[in-house]
Design goal:
about 190 residues, mainly alpha, 8 helices, about 0% strand, disordered C terminus
């Protein structure tokens, strides 16, 4: 019997929403670039906003895609050391790694991104062609930081759960963690494992 981690249902919902948002942004990006090519080469009158829209959509897709990839554990990682460790040591290393990632996400993406957003709001900076507030564009930084922090906390809960299981604590080799005490006694007395 496997118990589900806390936040599992919330993670699945976040995954679905974020995946749908990324697919929508990618679709808009493709349509935007196609419109730019059409207006430039077919109509000989290039659209004024398409270059800027493509740039900002690409920023959002990149930042949210990084958060999604991190949440799905599809990000680039050097896993030489974690692959050599097992049990408790692996979970402790995982907690250390996740702590570093969480610190970065909070300090750089959330706090630094929020400062950038507030600065552009105070200065009332807008984009040249579309005249949208740059704070809207830069708001993807704290948003992706929040998402990465959520995924990191979820992974940390997995490591804590792993530390609490008998095989991670370092139970005796003859012990059967998934069996009842009666089955363990029977296996020991008969020599059957």
């Amino acid at each position: 019997m496997t118990s589900e981690l806390p936040l599992s249902s919330i993670k699945r919902a976040v995954d679905r929403v974020l995946g749908g948002l990324l697919a929508t942004f990618m679709g808009l990006l493709v349509l935007d670039v196609l419109w730019q090519v059409f207006t430039r080469f077919v109509l000989s009158n290039p659209s004024q906003f398409t270059d800027e829209a493509a740039r900002y959509l690409l920023i959002w897709v990149g930042m949210l895609g990084a958060a999604y990839g991190f949440g799905q554990r599809m990000h680039l990682a050097i896993d030489l050391l974690p692959e050599r460790l097992a049990g408790r040591a692996r979970h402790i290393l995982g907690l250390g790694i996740e702590t570093v990632v969480l610190t970065f996400a909070v300090a750089v993406l959330i706090v630094g991104g929020a400062r950038l957003v507030s600065l552009t709001l105070v200065l009332r900076q807008t984009s040249a062609a579309m005249e949208i507030p740059l704070a809207v564009v830069y708001s993807v930084l704290p948003l992706s930081g929040i998402l990465i922090s959520f995924y990191t906390i979820y992974a940390m809960l997995g490591h804590v759960h792993g530390l609490r299981t008998p095989d991670a604590i370092g139970s005796a080799p003859d012990a059967q963690p998934d069996s009842s005490p009666a089955e363990s006694a029977m296996a020991i007395s008969t020599g059957i494992e």
